[in-house]
């Protein structure tokens, strides 16, 4: 699924409606599509993913800094050989009273940036044990420009739902030392 370009200036109601529609579309995909990671035998009982409540405080403007020398990097995976990506940019943002950075990667043939990350919910059972992902639309962004970083769109990799997938693990420096209680979760609370 491609990222939803969400300008930080969206009205609150329009933004919430777009997040809700995105979640409904994803649930429909997981319940019915042939490429769903939900095992076919389990799709009939699938009643949708678990999400944190939509929270505007987790939609932030991030300063986009393209990599000076984009380089190929290998990210470890949940199974199998490492996956190759291109280090594309660093995204600097404030969350609460703290400043954070995340490295964004480019996947060949994709226009969006791939941002795998962990946070303080990763190890406490609320989110997938290996981290979550964000897709960020850098359209038109240049060094120092801002891009929307919306953690309400944080999602679990397919390997969270099916054991036959190999998923990239977030690099250690893509850990946010805060609880990002936004996006997909794995517990039922």
Automatic annotation (TrEMBL):
It comes from the Archaea. PANTHER family: DUF1684 DOMAIN-CONTAINING PROTEIN. This is DUF1684 family protein.
């Amino acid at each position: 699924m491609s990222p939803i370009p969400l300008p930080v200036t969206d009205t609150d109601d329009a933004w919430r409606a777009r997040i809700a529609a995105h979640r409904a579309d994803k649930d429909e995909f997981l319940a019915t599509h042939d490429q769903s990671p939900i095992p076919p035998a389990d799709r009939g009982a699938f009643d949708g993913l678990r999400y944190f409540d939509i929270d505007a405080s987790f939609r932030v403007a991030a300063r986009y800094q393209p990599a000076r020398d984009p380089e190929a990097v290998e990210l470890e995976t949940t199974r199998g050989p490492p996956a190759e990506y291109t280090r594309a940019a660093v995204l600097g943002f404030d969350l609460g009273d703290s400043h954070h950075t995340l490295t964004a990667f480019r996947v060949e043939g994709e226009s969006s940036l791939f941002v795998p990350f962990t946070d303080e919910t990763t190890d406490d059972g609320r989110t997938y044990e290996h981290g979550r992902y964000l897709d960020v639309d850098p359209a038109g962004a240049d060094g120092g420009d801002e891009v929307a970083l919306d953690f309400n769109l944080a999602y679990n990799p397919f390997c969270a739902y099916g054991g036959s997938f190999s998923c990239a693990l977030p690099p250690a420096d893509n850990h946010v030392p805060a609880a990002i209680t936004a996006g997909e979760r794995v517990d039922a609370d």
